[in-house]
Write a sequence for this structure.
């Protein structure tokens, strides 16, 4: 029975983290700005200063354009982290994701979130 309880409890913790993850704009953080929005897409500007963190949140499929490159530490709902370096001028297509992040450097991104 104990062998079943530990994985079940871990799964419930991960599920509750995913359920509680929300739209990043609900936090009212100054590093996030909505530039444009309609029924199909939302365009966001993300411009944190070094050391600024964003709590756990979710993005749908997204196109990301790096205005000012640098490093970001990304933390997944399971607690794992990865440091990612972004180059100025790069464009990336990202799958839907739930994460939190911390700016290791001053950076600036434009994100185009696909709603459909």
């Amino acid at each position: 029975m104990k062998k079943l309880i530990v994985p079940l409890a871990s799964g419930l913790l991960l599920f509750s983290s995913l359920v509680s993850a929300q739209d990043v704009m609900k936090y009212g953080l100054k590093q996030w700005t909505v530039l444009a929005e309609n029924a199909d897409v939302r365009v966001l500007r993300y411009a944190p200063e070094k050391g600024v963190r964003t709590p756990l949140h979710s993005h749908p499929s997204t196109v990301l354009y790096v205005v000012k490159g640098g490093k970001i530490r990304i933390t997944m709902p399971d607690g794992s982290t990865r440091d990612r370096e972004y180059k100025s001028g790069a464009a990336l297509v990202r799958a839907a994701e739930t994460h939190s992040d911390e700016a290791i450097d001053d950076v600036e991104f434009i994100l185009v979130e696909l709603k459909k």
User: Anything to note?
Assistant: The beta strands are 22-23, 32-37, 41-46, 53-59, 62-68, 70-75, 81-86, 91-94, 97-103, 108-114. The two ends are 43 Å apart (CA to CA). The longest strand covers residues 53-59.
